[in-house]
Amino acid sequence: MDDQIYYKRTIIKETVPSASLGLDRAVKVYLPPGYNELLSYPVVYCQDGDDFFNFGRIATTMNRLIFDEGVEPVLIVGVDVDKRVRTSEYAPEGDRNAAYCRFFAEELVPFIEQKYPVRATADERVLAGDSLGGTVSLHLALAYPSLFSKVLSLSGAFLHTTRERLAEEADLSWMELLMVIGTDETEVKTERGVFNFLEENRTTKKLLEERSCRLQYVEKPGKHLWGFWQNELPWMLQHFLG
């Protein structure tokens, strides 16, 4: 098969108005090969949208999965973020976090579902994020279980605030979570300090298992970088999208 078909993609730029955030938010929407408005599609929502497209190569990966592996076509929504306020939006204790979560669940999802033929059930929506993007994805599912039940986490920043939130839950059997963490992620520098992400993820894994979360947890050699995460996206997407 000609490799060029993997690199042809249709990506639509949208602007989502937000009363919650007090300003518009840019998003990019990947339409799969053969996109047809008369059909319906699962949808993957990505935090750090530009990074997923540029560094994660998620559009090319999705084309390969559709053409080579028979994975069902899907729409991908990459949500823009201003890196200067990323921590305040994505971190559970951030001062913009509550507003961002409201925007995501109550403004972004309805906007996409009004404009595109995506399936409107929790098991047809996937939340994806790296580092703090994984954190906010998990917290969104916990806050809106009727909307989201599938979370894809690339080296999620699951620190004490997240574990306190998980401890409030008795049963997470409704949630399916894929977690990848690199064994080299023992000293990750962040805006909030240096953390051993490997140990933080291992501790979080136990909490999730105790609450019957449908968890697939993978450790392998890798650093806190897109060079590691990009290679994990294909199997994780294929797991959720079949």
From TrEMBL:
State the InterPro entries in the record: AB_hydrolase_fold, Esterase-like, Mycobacterial_A85_antigen
Superkingdom of source: Bacteria
Q: Name one Pfam family in it.
A: Esterase
Question: What is this protein's name?
Answer: Esterase family protein
